[in-house]
Structure formats: C-alpha cells, structure tokens
Design a protein that fits this description.
The chain is mainly α. The chain has one domain (about 1-55). Helix content is about 50%, strand content about 0%. Helix 1 crosses helix 2. The N and C termini lie far apart (about 25 Å).
C-alpha cells in the first residue's frame, strides 16, 4: 500500500512514486546499511514517539 493512503497494498504506489511503499523502505535501508525490516521498525518507533508528543 502506499503506507500513507491506507489501501492495504504495501507494494502499490497507486500510480504516484512519491507514495511510501515497501520499495521506499528498501531504498532507505540500503542508504542506512540496514535491512528493510530494521528501517520499518525504526520508522515505527520514531512515529510512536512523534504521536506521543502530540498528546
């Protein structure tokens, strides 16, 4: 899914390469010398912290 639209399809950019997909995480992981799973986990942890700040 483009993770940002909520369609539930993690490999579909919905016709717009600016949407966040599994490919986005793969590219970010390569840049940081980590696995795609690590990139997702770290993103998740950062998002949790950001949402906690908003409370």
């Amino acid at each position: 899914m483009c993770y940002n639209c909520g369609c539930g399809k993690p490999d579909n950019d919905m016709g717009n390469p600016k949407n966040i997909t599994n490919k986005t995480f793969e590219e970010a992981a390569k840049a940081a010398k980590q696995t795609s799973e690590e990139a997702k986990r770290k993103t998740y942890e950062t998002l949790k912290k950001e949402f906690e700040k908003k409370k």
